[in-house]
Design brief:
2 copies of one chain form a homodimer. Chain A has a single domain, classed as Jelly Rolls (Sandwich), CATH 2.60.120. Chain A is globular, with a radius of gyration of 13 Å. The first copy, chain A, has strands at 2-3, 16-22, 26-33, 49-56, 59-63, 68-71, 75-79, 85-90, 96-103. Helices cover 0% and strands 51% of the residues of chain A. Chains A and B meet through strand 1, strand 4, strand 7 and strand 9 of A and strand 1, strand 4, strand 7 and strand 9 of B.
Chain lengths: 104, 104
Amino acid sequence: MTNLFSNIPAKLPEEVFEDIIKTPDVRIERIISKGHTTPNNEWYDQDENEWVLVVKGEAKLLFDDEKEVHLKEGDHVNILAHQRHQVSWTDPNQETIWLAVFYK
Amino acid sequence: MTNLFSNIPAKLPEEVFEDIIKTPDVRIERIISKGHTTPNNEWYDQDENEWVLVVKGEAKLLFDDEKEVHLKEGDHVNILAHQRHQVSWTDPNQETIWLAVFYK
């Protein structure tokens, strides 16, 4: 048994990405952000679909049709493969814990 | 955008199982329990692996080697295919929200 809120680094100079489950078909990842955004305003353009949940904290996702979604605790979105997006904001005052499931 | 804590039925005569994502390879499911346990103390014996997270509430999982794990908010376990298990307890005083990812 592991806890999603444990082993959070005291300092977060970079976002933290950790695989929880990894198989050829699916990857479950924990992401920890604290004020981070996607570096250089680049777009994520992924070969896999990504279902993402904000378990704790707050964040904003920007899509390349200029739609921005503000995610709070419990909010989840499904990002289709090659749906270009970036993390445009995360709360600088607390850790945001994301759960992401990448799948084909 | 959907919220994991929204649309919770006021009454829960039965556990609620809802697919969030379903493909041939992966299924993400929300489960809502309130005092429920696995009916008739039967064992779940599944063809797929199941990664399960308690997002809110508390529950106990019993494995057929008699090991019981008490899951609280943020706790997650990975249940391998055909690892027999049952839900032996869920908090009767609040909803327990589970997130389950079934994968091959």
